[in-house]
Amino acid sequence: MLIMNMTIVFSVLTFQALLGAFDNLWHHELAARLPQRASARRELTLHAAREALYGLLFAGLAWLHWQGWWALLPASLLVAEMFITIADFLEEDRSRKLPPLERALHTVLTVSYGLLLGLLGPMFWQAWRLPSGLSVVTHGLWSWFFSAASVGVLLWSVRNVLAVRQLKRISSAPGQQHPPAAQALGGATVLVTGGTGFIGSALVSRLLSQGRRVIVLTRDPLQARASLGPRVWAVDRLDDIPAETRIDAVVNLAGATILGAPWTASRRQVLLESRRRTTKEVLRLMQRLHQRPEVLVSASAVGYYGVPPGMAPIDETAPAEPGRFQSDLCAAIEREALKAQHIGVRVVCLRPGIVLGRNGGAYPALALAARLGFAATLGGGRQPVPWIHLDDAVGLMLHAIAEPVLEGPVNAVAPQTPCQATFTDIMAAAFGRRARLHVPAAVLRAGLGEMSELLLCGQNAVPTRALASGYVFAHPTLQEALDQLVGSARPPRCSDGFIVRRL
């Protein structure tokens, strides 16, 4: 009877563990990206505690048999898990808006946990009435399966603890020195769309630190308030903003991630509509406001220039490349944004390159690959890599708001643009490694299709208008940017800041 009961217990526990693993990976890691969100420290702490309890419970059920007072140990783990889960539910409701699938999954997990308690409760009651003792037992393959599961969840618990410590260190670190914003910004109220994203959250943080009033358009106001702080007015519809609200500037950063799913016809439509729809909503808001904003800063990308040949410098006067998707996408975004000029709003179309920052974008993946020795040259390696440090991306947005002479397209890129092979060499050297790997262009084209252009082609864009308008870059060279991001001394380098490698 005991063997039969334990088989049922292990089956239910396996179901519970697999659902929990899916919830963790799909919702917490990929969707909410909790380890990258400073506001998620409490939730991650609760997750770490629960995973540690499950690790102990898995190992205990796999190999031990409790009697008497010893039975209180696994029972106390189950009770503690229940209270931690309740606290986790409350924290989730406070800090973020759960998608329907995650809510449904939590319901199923709760029912499954209730069934587990119904099975283990009578067993522990019977064991508690026996003479106290602790003995080693085996349940065949179940014991080995749950031993492996125990190691896995305990390691994940440690990983979450480290993530919490990292987030705490980042949030308590003294602020970085930022390029000064022009005083013309004054006490402006700024509306930021996409304000909870990688760049948007950095912009909002800088605006708040300068005493600005900030309104954020987001799909999840709860998450925005939790991550950005109570001083932010978070809305999920621009229609909720009264017409008498004073908004001095708008920064439009909203849009689905370009580098991700393949550029199928449906994906291209998502990429286009996610940007065009928000821009249209911003235009409608500006039209109905009693006082129009002074400026709209709208982000597209250096992909506006398509795939120009060679390394010839490209300033803001260069044309688009019709028929090339990345160019058509950026041109469509800018056409929509420039309609604001018809109602007397100054429009600045920022064209960023690859934005490098610790907590998002391309840098974390590039840094991890470099640290592990997997930095690779892509294709021939001669393609230019236009980049910009997050500090300067945000600084240029504030500069665009504050400088009334700045209008039209502005390349948001660092003054120096290395080729991809040099970029990879510098990145690898920043972690004391060498770039030894090579990924052929044919492999990337076969796997990514037209999206491979983002990796195999580039634009040697130069920030002509930014420099001419007086903007001073905080991180003008890639080596300086990596010194700040990595935070440690680097090997000697050539006078131009690049590590030279023969191509």
From TrEMBL:
Key words, A-Z: Cell cycle, Cell division, Membrane, Transmembrane, Transmembrane helix
Entry keyword annotation includes Transmembrane: yes
Gene3D superfamilies: NAD(P)-binding Rossmann-like Domain
GO biological process, one term: cell division
Segments passing through the bilayer: 6-26, 72-91, 103-121, 141-162
Similarity comment text for this entry: Belongs to the NAD(P)-dependent epimerase/dehydratase family. SDR39U1 subfamily.
Ranges for domain NAD-dependent epimerase/dehydratase: 190-404
Annotated PANTHER family: EPIMERASE FAMILY PROTEIN SDR39U1, SUGAR NUCLEOTIDE EPIMERASE RELATED
Claim: Cell cycle is one of the keywords in the record: yes
Record protein name field: Cell division inhibitor
Residue ranges constituting the DUF1731 domain according to the UniProt record: 439-485
